[in-house]
């Protein structure tokens, strides 16, 4: 802003001089210069606004960034690492409190969101299923290990 004010003062001084020496060509060049400076000032303002917006977005992104260091893989899901041992040894069905610490991998990879898995009753009693309440990603645990313990659709 200070540079803009200074430039305006210089133009004013040159205008006074051009009028004094009656140089019409110089006066017309000064008018061009004035309009260029106004354009640059506006462009500068727009850039400042854009920088502010980008800074705001950046702050938001780093706020939402998930600390993957504290997550561990369990079957197809991500779980809080400090709960991994507990989850591995817990009998099924898992308690709601434990499901809070088990997250949908699709929502994490796609949207950087930690969405806790919920119980999926669609499979009946044969298998114990979990489903993401947001995207529908599902995984299940069966009795026969040869069938594989995880499936998705
Ligand atoms: Zn999901």
Task: Summarize the structure in words.
Keywords: Coiled coil. By secondary structure, the protein is an alpha+beta fold. The chain folds into 2 domains: 63 residues; 80 residues, no CATH class. Helix content is 50%, strand content 14%. Strands 1-2-3 form a 3-stranded antiparallel beta sheet. Strands 4-5-6 form a 3-stranded antiparallel beta sheet, with no helix packed on it. The chain is rod-shaped, with a radius of gyration of 32 Å. Zinc ion binds next to helix 5. The site of zinc ion has 8 residues, from helix 5.
Distance between the termini: 59 Å
Largest sheet descriptor: 3 strands, antiparallel
Enumerate the spans where pLDDT stays under 50 for 5 or more consecutive residues.
Answer: 145-153
**What is the approximate shape?**
rod-shaped
By DSSP, the count of extended strands is 6
How are the secondary structure elements laid out?
Layout: H1 2-20, H2 24-64, E1 71-74, E2 77-80, H3 84-89, H4 96-99, E3 102-103, H5 105-111, E4 118-120, E5 128-131, E6 138-141
Antiparallel strand pairs: 1-2, 2-3, 4-5, 5-6
The site of zinc ion has 8 residues, from helix 5.
Outline:
Keywords: Coiled coil. Residues 30-64 form a coiled coil. Helix content is 50%, strand content 14%.
Core attributes:
153 residues, three-stranded antiparallel beta sheet, 2 domains, rod-shaped, 6 strands, binds zinc ion, disordered C terminus, 14% strand, alpha+beta
């Amino acid at each position: 802003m200070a540079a803009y004010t200074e430039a305006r003062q210089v133009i004013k001084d040159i205008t006074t001089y051009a009028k004094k020496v009656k140089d019409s060509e110089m006066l017309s060049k000064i008018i061009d210069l004035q309009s260029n400076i106004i354009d640059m000032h506006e462009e500068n303002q727009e850039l400042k606004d854009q920088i502010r917006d980008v800074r705001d977005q950046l702050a938001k992104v780093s706020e939402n960034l998930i600390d993957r260091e504290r997550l561990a893989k369990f079957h197809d899901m991500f779980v809080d690492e400090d709960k991994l041992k507990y989850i591995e040894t817990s009998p099924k069905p898992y308690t709601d409190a434990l499901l809070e610490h088990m997250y949908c991998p699709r929502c994490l990879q796609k949207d950087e969101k930690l969405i806790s898995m919920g119980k999926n009753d669609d499979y009946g009693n044969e298998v114990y299923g979990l489903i993401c309440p947001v995207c529908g990603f599902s995984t299940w645990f069966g009795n026969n290990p040869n069938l594989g313990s995880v499936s998705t659709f």
